[in-house]
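Sorry, can you check?
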Amino acid sequence: MTSTAARTTELATGWWLLDPARSSAGFEVPSIYGLATVKGEFRHYVGTLNLSDPPAVALVIEAESLDTGNRRRDKHLRSAAFFDAAEYPWVRFEADTAELDGNAMTLRGVLYAAGKHVPLEVGATVTAAGEEFEIEASAVVDHRELGMRFSPLGMVGDHARLFVRGRLMRAEDRA
């Protein structure tokens, strides 16, 4: 077993936390008929990974913490036309299965947002970084399936790319 494989095997044991100080969770959506991309991040979230106990991965995001750098757009995205943050304050992803193959991880679970839910498959890469791991994960979701259908003249793309990048550290290291 190579040292990289041994380190990734270590990921399969115990609880790991996404360190918000060194991580980001966000989205990208094509706009203006694909000529531009709206990018946004969520400022407040908690992510856990425990491959030996379901849910294998959980990411809970405060919908109100959405930030695209444009206050007017952020207010609209938090409204009932999109996330409906007043009624549904949390966006959540729970993966019941996680397959780890070397540095590659495939997560299968459910994304909950705006009072709806959709199945979601997430591809991730995990890389050893000292006693921690770096993770880069992404998935594509049709946000219309979550009731997010606002798109005057079809200007907003139907699919959003969701991503998480950052550091996983052992849960006991966070105390």
About this structure: The mean pLDDT is 87.
